[in-house]
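Box S1 | Example of a co-folding query
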Amino acid sequence: MRSYLDHNATSPLRPEARDAMLAALALPGNASSVHAEGRAARMMVEDAREKVAALAGCPPRQVVFTGGGTEANVTALSPDWLTGDGPGRLFVSAIEHASVIRGGRFALNEVETLPVDSNGVIDLDAAREAFASWHKISGGAPFLVSLMLANNETGAVQPVAQMAERVHEFGGLLHSDAVQALGKLRVEELAAGADLISVSAHKFGGPKGAGALIVKREGLPVAAMLRGGGQERGYRAGTENIAAIAGFGAAAELSLAGWDQIEALRDRLEAQVAEIASGLTVFSQDAPRLPNTSCLAVAGLAAETLLIGLDLEGIAVSAGSACSSGKVARSHVLDAMGVGPELGAGAIRVSLGWSTTENDIERFIAAWTRLYGKFAERRQAA
Ligand code: PLP
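Box S1 (continued) | Returned holo structure for pyridoxal-5'-phosphate
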């Protein structure tokens, strides 16, 4: 038996989501067809839309299904005014996911990065100044801002609702990547005022390759990436992946419960590890955080050594962000927080989820203690 503690990379599929997917796979119809088979498929899609909307706290009509969080982000960051001749600006926080940092369809020289503080939380004053300056220089040209609701590496929760006020003050639009937050936090409260919100199924027990862009109003300048059959109200053409959507809905229905216990397990892990290693740093500990995430480091104890040692003991964690490359690279998130290279190179991310047990946490603490003990011996001998 392994202990899987990498839920921010992806969370194992919940059995209920798997069952819903298998039932959907047995349906022969296309959700756009008018016959009985088509209507049965349509019902599955609309049922899932209601469940995702209930979890996100929005009307079902606002949920546009996509092929995942990346697609939702890139769609949000490709407003239709970009096809015009006029100037435009995209502001992104320095800690965004790669799919936001790349700036969608914006040219790289149209993307401006907004700073975060040492806790990895956006600097709202600096952001407001940047919007005011753009408004003045451009004579009120359009701009879009992207601020994630919770960071995938540290778990730091961002003040999205406060950001919305500052963005709207200057006539801009706000997008929030809530991929790590949906299912764990009350998105509708924390991201109140955001115009566009991205979510993904596989971070809380749904299937990989299913997500949604929540479009909060009619008339927002969202340009579809995929044009064709007019599915998803024209925002995302293509025959719906009914099985993935059904799995997304089933996982959504289950996901707001259980986080208090998960948070207690995360806190226990941090407290015990801190007791063993006096020089432990827990990143973003002084900020509001996701209940399931712990990003920690001891200077000099390399993340790669820990990762491999833990893996050999049957425990899966990751170093920094494992979302894309599969290799241990410098974290742009820790860099933006001003974390030095030695400490940054030791950062591992432990992320818990629906399948985590007390036993997983005890096992992690025991393994970490052994690996830290070897490191401390080597350090003393040197
Ligand atoms: N945004 C964040 C914050 C993420 O952690 C991820 C993780 O993969 C994504 C976006 C991309 O979502 P997806 O894997 O569904 O494309």
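The domain at 3-12+257-381 is CATH 3.90.1150.10 (Aspartate Aminotransferase, domain 1). The longest strand covers residues 293-298.
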